[in-house]
Amino acid sequence: MKRVGILTSGGDCQGLNSAIRGVAKGLYEYYGKKVEIYGIIDGYKGLINGEYKLMKPEDFSGILTRGGTVFGTSRQPFKLMRVIDESGVDKVAEMKKHYAEMKLDCLVVLGGNGTHKTANLLAEEGLNVVSMPKTIDNDIWGTDVTFGFQSAVDIATNVIDCIHTTATSHGRVFIVECMGHKAGWLTLHAGVAGGADVILIPEIPYHIDKVIDCIKSRTKSGKTFSILAVAEGAVSAEIAELPKKQKKEAMANLMYPSISYKIAHEIEEATGQETRVTVPGHFQRGGSPDAYDRFITTQFGAACAKLIIKEKYGFMTGMVNGKVVPVPLSEVAGKLKSVPTDSKIIKAAKDIGICFGD
Ligand code: F6P
């Protein structure tokens, strides 16, 4: 009997259930009744606390289009994994204990950057681990694309589309704040797809005067409105230049609910134009996966099942140049895939006059 545990960890996103379905169907297809799949509840928390359930094949039917995760999820910071907590729980030891208790041959982990650091830790501890890359941020190293990303881009683009009609009616400046603290992929793609006039991402620190100049020159040319797509992690050039600790303090003491509100205030002061902020927030992570995310998660799931069948452990399924390939967990863990500032997308956007504040 083959025994496989599956968990989803970190922030949820679209496509988790579709990926779970893909790996489960791939395993049942090959092993038939000779495989047992355990659903581990709420991510690593369930593995630490021994909360899991034996699944039936029918549990994986009808979940292709469902948002969220059927197993639940939680954030368990990697930096605390080796820290014994107040009640004396050794998290790593408990995870290994419950892995052994389920008699697992392999643990399948679906998650983002933090999740992959812990996945690699568990692999180093001798567990058989394979993983799939999920996050709307698209910032996992070793894969061209993560699942959840495209669905979030679709939602954020739709927000920018809707904002266009109200911005034009009122002749206002609008900021649409997209998720992404460290990486600007979502803001960049939605900004370009939605026709934003200004795109501000963490990778390109902005000068507020450049942003204001862009809005003023639009007004001068007869455009009555402007739309900005701003990543929640966008940072001004002055703050970006500060040493790490001071930078963190400056961001924590913004005096505004988020960076977008500060930028909106500065624009309104300088241009006199009414400026509003729209924050779609977790809406970007909700609802059904789009067709593309269903398409790639089905491939990731099938590839993950293949890795388990071949007993090829310690890998994440990545998408590289349109092909699903195994990427060593040790290479993925601890790295961030930022938007390259010389990327072709940024170049094309600048070529059509989109301002990045640099
Ligand atoms: O990592 C995905 C993400 O949605 C980020 O874009 C965002 O900054 C963060 O999670 C929000 O986290 P939480 O769901 O814990 O508020």
How much helicity do the residues have? 40-55%
- Spatial separation of the terminal alpha carbons: 58 Å
State mean pLDDT (0 to 100 scale). 97
Number of strands: 11
Secondary structural class: alpha/beta
Strand content: 15-25%
Class of the largest domain, according to the CATH hierarchy? Alpha Beta
- The largest sheet has its strands arranged as 3-2-1-4-5-10-11
Order of helices and strands: EHEHEHEHEHEHEHEHHHEHEEHH
**Total of DSSP H or I helical runs spanning 4+ residues:** 13
CATH topology of the largest domain: Rossmann fold
Structure explained in plain terms:
It is a single chain. The protein has helices spanning 16-31, 44-49, 91-101, 113-124, 149-170, 185-194, 208-220, 237-240, 244-252, 259-271, 291-309, 329-332, 344-351, and strands at 2-8, 35-40, 52-54, 106-111, 129-133, 173-178, 198-200, 226-231, 275-278, 315-320, 323-328. With 358 residues, it is of the alpha/beta class. It has 2 domains: 2-147 and 289-332, Rossmann fold, CATH 3.40.50; 151-285, 3-Layer(aba) Sandwich (Rossmann fold). It is elongated, with a radius of gyration of 22 Å. A hairpin with a 2-residue loop joins strand 10 (315-320) and strand 11 (323-328). The protein is built from 13 helices and 11 strands. The strands form 2 sheets. It has a 7-stranded mixed sheet with strand order 3-2-1-4-5-10-11, sandwiched between helices. Bound molecules: 6-O-phosphono-beta-D-fructofuranose. The site of 6-O-phosphono-beta-D-fructofuranose has 11 residues, from loops.
